[in-house]
What does this fold into?
Amino acid sequence: MAKKTVATLQTSSKRLTKAIKMVKSPKSGAYTFVESVMAPEEVNDWLNQK
It folds into this structure.
């Protein structure tokens, strides 16, 4: 499973990070990409969840 944090975004006083992870579909077996923008402290928890 590929994991990567691709960008750090700054909006006014908040620091945000855009994270992308590759998820395998249980039906077809194909991989899809899931993107989310969150605080940098939450990235590892988000990437580790299934």
The chain has a mean pLDDT of 83. The chain has one helix and three strands. The helical segments are 43-48. The first helix runs from residue 43 to 48.
